[in-house]
Design a protein that fits this description.
This protein has four helices and seven strands, in the order βααβββαβαββ. It is an alpha+beta fold. A seven-stranded mixed β-sheet has the order 1-2-3-4-5-7-6, with helices on both faces.
Length: 149
C-alpha cells in the first residue's frame, strides 16, 4: 500500500466534497458544498491523501505562527478506513511541517471521534474541552502536540 500526499487542485473539488459527505456525521462536521470547498482550497493548505493512485481522503493545515500549525482536517473515505492510511498521512504532514521548522501543532476533535486515539499516538494531548463548538451544540477537544526545541 503506497500512501502519498499531493496538493489539492480544482480537479479535486468533487472528490473532496464526495469524501466529506461520506464522513460527515453529528460528531464530524465537514465542508461538503463544492463552492465552500474551493474557498477552503484558497484559504488553507489542503492535500489529497492518495493510496495506490486513488484519492481516498484529505488532510489540511493552517500555518498560524512562526513555529505553529493548526491541523484543520483529516478525513479518509470510510471504504479505506482502518488500514492505517490516516495515520500515515498525519505522519507525513507532521514530518513535512517539522522539516520547515514548525514544532507546535494543534487540532480539534469530537470526544467520541475514534481518530482521537490516532492523534494521541502521534503525541497530541487534550488541553481543554469546548462544550459548544462554533455554535454547533456539540463538544470538541482541543489537542496539542509540542516537540522539544
Amino acid at each position: 500500500m503506497n500512501v502519498t500526499l499531493r496538493p489539492a487542485t480544482e480537479e479535486d473539488v468533487e472528490t473532496y466534497a464526495r469524501i466529506a459527505k461520506r464522513v460527515e456525521s453529528p460528531i464530524n462536521l465537514a465542508t461538503t458544498d463544492p463552492n465552500e470547498v474551493r474557498e477552503e482550497f484558497d484559504q488553507i493548505n489542503v492535500f489529497m491523501i492518495v493510496c495506490d493512485g486513488i484519492s481516498v481522503g484529505y488532510i489540511s493545515y493552517e500555518h498560524r505562527e512562526a513555529r505553529y500549525a493548526y491541523i484543520s482536517e483529516l478525513a479518509v473515505d470510510p471504504d479505506y478506513q482502518g488500514r492505517g492510511i490516516g495515520g500515515q498521512a498525519l505522519s507525513m504532514l507532521l514530518d513535512s511541517l517539522r522539516s520547515q521548522g514548525l514544532n507546535v501543532f494543534s487540532l480539534m476533535t469530537h470526544p467520541e471521534n475514534p481518530a482521537r486515539r490516532l492523534y494521541e499516538r502521534h503525541g497530541f494531548t487534550v488541553v481543554r474541552q469546548i462544550e459548544d463548538f462554533w455554535g454547533s451544540k456539540t463538544p470538541r477537544l482541543e489537542m496539542f502536540c509540542e516537540d522539544p526545541d
